[in-house]
Design a protein that fits this description.
Elements: H1 2-39, E1 57-59, E2 65-67, E3 76-81, H2 86-97, E4 105-109, H3 116-126, E5 130-134, H4 138-143, E6 150-155, E7 158-163, H5 166-170
Parallel strand pairs: 3-4, 4-5
Antiparallel strand pairs: 1-2, 3-6, 6-7
Length: about 180
């Protein structure tokens, strides 16, 4: 009986040691992953300054047409937002409070134009700037955008500044 008890204690001890080794290995992997994420460039998915916007056409919620030609001449703020995105709501509030005379173009990126969240976002955005609801694909791709929100400062069809909120692109550091 004592030998059986000794074997059980050794077995439990060995299992505990294996469990501890696996735990430490997982912690090391998580720390490595955290370090890689922290060192990754934060603007990885923001279009590059100098990117020339590809031709696109979108219909505004008021029935007007919006194209690359509308982004020539003076500076234009372009915000690409997505329904159900808390950060997108924050960007919309920043645009509404922006004291500059730039009237933004707001492109709402959605797969469901009649969705309740999309309709609510469109209603909030109407008083802020020109609004178009665009499907997944061509319009965001024309801007080189694949994450939301993205705010751009565009002049003559070229991105002059890009970021995840208005303050990133209107600060002297954000503009190039």
């Amino acid at each position: 009986m004592t030998s059986l008890l000794a074997v059980a204690v050794v077995l439990v001890g060995a299992l505990g040691a294996v469990n501890l080794a696996i735990g430490f290995a997982m912690i090391r992997k998580l720390r490595d992953l955290e370090t890689r994420v922290a060192q990754a460039p934060s603007a990885e998915h923001v279009p590059q300054v100098g990117h020339r916007i590809d031709p696109f056409v979108a219909v505004t919620v008021d029935g007007g047409m919006l194209s690359q030609a509308d982004l020539t001449g003076s500076d234009t703020l372009v915000a690409l937002l997505s329904p159900g995105c808390g950060s997108c709501e924050d960007v919309l509030a920043q645009l509404a409070a922006d004291p500059s005379d730039l009237k933004p173009v707001i492109l709402i990126h959605t797969g469901e134009p009649e969705d309740e969240e999309t309709v609510a976002l469109v209603d909030k955005a109407r008083g802020v700037g020109r609004v178009a609801v665009v499907p997944f694909g061509p319009v965001p791709k024309a801007f080189g955008v694949d994450s939301f929100p993205t705010v751009l400062l565009v002049r003559d069809g070229t991105i002059r500044a890009a970021g995840y909120d208005l303050h990133e692109i209107t600060s002297p550091v954000g503009r190039h």
